[in-house]
Amino acid sequence: MAEKTKIMIVEDHDLFRAGLKRVIDEIKYLELVGEAENGAVFLEALQELDPDIVLMDIKMPVMDGMEATEKALKIKPFLKIIVLTLFGEEEYLYTMIQKGIAGFILKSTSINELERAIQLVSDGHQYFSPEINGMLVKKIKDDHSAKFQLSSKEKDVLQLLCLGYSSTEMANALFLSKRTVEGYRARLLQKTGQSNTLNLVLYAMKHNLVNENGK
User: Are 57 and 12 in contact (CB under 8 A)?
Assistant: First the structure.
């Protein structure tokens, strides 16, 4: 029997937390190991509960999600944190990315998107809600142009990376092998001087290497 992915919810609103719990309980390969109403309570329970993935709110009393994320990743560097956010909280997103989160999704997301985000993050990928990608593009893009040229296929792969596609999904969408897609990803990392996919996505959006509308 496959081992379940352990989930912890850190959210100060009781009704929203209860809704998340019901969703997690209905997904057979997930196990809810704990919940916390603020970052301080979360940190106290972190070592004992040992979650694989944390669903983290940003604005909370006592200790907010930014401080809790920073401290948690010092304790458990490989912990995967997915931030739950509202429209209007985009000012915090870039800071949270720099702290090392694995993804962020809107609180208004569908159950299917939440499950997809958890699956991708569990498999070692990052996940960004498409709407939040748009907010980030508007927030952090500047007037600088990239000093290198990308091939059409590299641009296609980069665009899909920024939309949260996995390597398998990109291969299917572009009619390429997964190995070829991974080769394009490696070249993109090399050309941009980035160390991982998350930083590559940020770099692409900052330097306007992708289309905001995903087309």
Answer: yes
Instruction: Give Cα 3 distance to the centre of its chain.
Output: 22
Range of the domain at 194: 141-206
Residue 206: closest CA among 162, 163, 164, 167: 162
**Does 70 reside within a domain?**
yes
Burial code (b: 16+ CB inside 10 Å, e: under 16) for 56-92 equals bbbebeebbbbebbebbbeeeeebbbbbbbeeebbeb
The strand order across the sheet containing 30-36 reads 30-36, 5-10, 53-57, 80-85, 103-106, 127-128
Is there a single domain that holds both residue 19 and residue 89?
Answer: yes
pTM over 0.70: no
Please, which residues have CB within 8 angstroms of residue 111's CB and are 6 or more apart in sequence? 23
State the Cα–Cα distance between residues 79 and 149, nearest whole angstrom: 35
Q: Among residues 42, 23, 28, 44, which one has the least CA distance to residue 81?
A: 42
In order of 64, 68, 97, 162, 192, the CA distances from 213 in angstroms are 31, 32, 21, 11, 22
Distance CA 106, CA 142 (A): 25
pLDDT digits (tens, 9 = 90+) for 103-128: 989 898 899 999 999 999 999 888 88
